[in-house]
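#structure-requests
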Amino acid sequence: MRSVSVFVSSTRKDLAQDCRVVVIEAINKCEAIAVAQETWTTDIQHSVEFCRKRLQDCSHYLGLFAYRRGYVLPKEGSKSMTELEFDWAIKLKKKSAVFIPDDTKPFSKNLRERCKDQSESEFKAQEEFLNKICAEGVYTLFEDPYDLAIRVSRLITIWQLGGLGAIVKNQARYSNSYLIANIGRIEHEGRFLNLLVNIRKKSVNYICFVIHGPRGYGHMYLADRLSKITERENDRETKYLKIPVSHADKTATPEDLLVKMSRLIRIKDSSSSFRRLSNGLRDILNDQHCLLDLRNIHNFKGSLNGFITGFWQPLISNFGENMPNNLIVLLTFEESEFPPGCTELLLDAAKNGTVNFSPSKPLLLPSLERFTVREITDYLVELGYSRYNAINRAKELIDECDQGNPLFLLQKLQEFDSFQETA
């Protein structure tokens, strides 16, 4: 992994309470270095030379801008500090990314409300700056702080790996499914992070998530990413338990899975029962969080229905309440449709923004679907395309790849040389 230091440029009065905070946290949690004015003294935070020197010393630049104009130094003409920093990053040819709010999403209205106290001339000056950013083609849209946090975390990881171009070129280290996870799935990660936060607020001790959609759409690598998000967001150490369910388990009973799990957490009593397994998990949860990763649950006898009624519900009925740590379960279900009667056993977290958690009912994350023009556009921008050319190329790829089918799209990504934008 490459060492990455990120100069964070943004206004504070409108963004400090949520957006700026999650950006700095995301950078730090990825074990990169966030260089931000929070660590500077009041006397020097508006020093032009000091800011330029800090930016010059950083490996990367990240701009976060909305509708409020930045501080303007009298000696620097009409440009704000944030615009000056943006210009310096371009001139220094820093690896850069800029995040601006998506005007079509509700959160953008909230950000506009925070800027009502600025003058009309300040608003127009900031609008001109945003238009300048869009003309440069280096920006990425974000929907809300959760979406922003996921996008920044993914970006920092990509920078640490040497960029998406390096990932695509180095097929020996990074599989096709890994690329699926890097192209899109922001909605899933953002929704998952949002739910984790709500779980903590509601003091829910155990919850089960279902990753679902057509076979081959990147279930495994999304599960890997959500596992990392869980471990990163937990306030204590997390014990990770991975249990693949193979084709041989088509005839396996809940008791067979019970034995497999009991062995995994080293319960010595050979006569496994749900009570003994729940007690074993409770012993783990007394000291740390536990993440249980169950892959390919469609291979289980009775499919997802059988797992919920034959295993999950009997297991949690033996748990009790008020555990000091959380049990998070991730299931991958690679089928286009659910078995009859299954939807009654689930909660749709994609549709219900304020989910009333019920531990006995697993939460459905948004279905894995074909890629959209926006997802491919963002991916191509990170590869080095200008946004204008990325949008046009993304539309072509959607048409060429069966309207965004991930399996066909990845075949195109193998031809990396044709994806490099000419100077």
